[in-house]
Amino acid sequence: MEKEEAEHQSTIEVSDLDYHTGQIALYEDKYKGEFERTLGTKLNLTPEEETDAQVWKHHLGRQRLGFKNTEK
Q1: Closest-CA residue to 30 (of 16, 14, 46)
Q2: What's the per-residue H, E or C state across 3-53?
Q3: What is the pLDDT of residue 43?
Q4: Residue 1 confidence class, pLDDT cut points 50, 70, 90
Q5: If we measure between CA atoms, which residue out of 58, 69, 64 comes closest to residue 23?
Q6: What is the pLDDT of residue 69?
Q7: What distance in Å separates the CA atoms of residue 40 and residue 49, rounded to the nearest whole number?
Q8: How far, in Å, CA of 20 to CA of 51, rounded?
Q9: Residue 56 CB contacts under 8 Å (≥ 6 apart), including other chains
Q10: 14 vs 52: CA distance, rounded Å
Q11: 35, 53 in Cβ contact below 8 A?
Q12: What is the per-residue pLDDT across 21-67, written as a single tens digit (0 to 9) for each?
């Protein structure tokens, strides 16, 4: 039973990681590059860019956390 639970948890983590990676790809397409080279370098963001930057950073953080969890 524990093996099934571990496999289920692994599937959830991969799905979560895939979700965040997909969201990051959408922002990279929208802004034509990685966060650090686009919104991460701008000083004066529009309200839309500010919101996008916050959400984008959230997805990047969750993706990093997801990669750490899959390395265990």
Answers
A1: 46
A2: HHHHHHHHHHHHHHHHHHHHHHHHHHHHHCCCHHHCHHHCCCCCHHHHHHH
A3: 94
A4: low
A5: 58
A6: 73
A7: 10
A8: 16
A9: 23, 24, 27, 35, 39
A10: 24
A11: yes
A12: 999 999 999 999 999 999 999 999 999 999 999 999 999 999 998 87
pLDDT digits (tens, 9 = 90+) for 5-19: 555 555 555 688 899
Q: Which bin fits 33, alpha (ψ -120 to 50), beta or left (φ > 0)? A: left
pTM over cut 0.90: no
pLDDT for the residue 20:
95
- Contact call for residues 66 and 13 (beta carbons, < 8 A): yes
Distance CA 1, CA 62 (A): 28
**Residue entry with tokens 């860019």:** 49
DSSP 8-state secondary structure symbol assigned to residue 72? -
- Enclosing H/E stretch for 55: helix 47-70
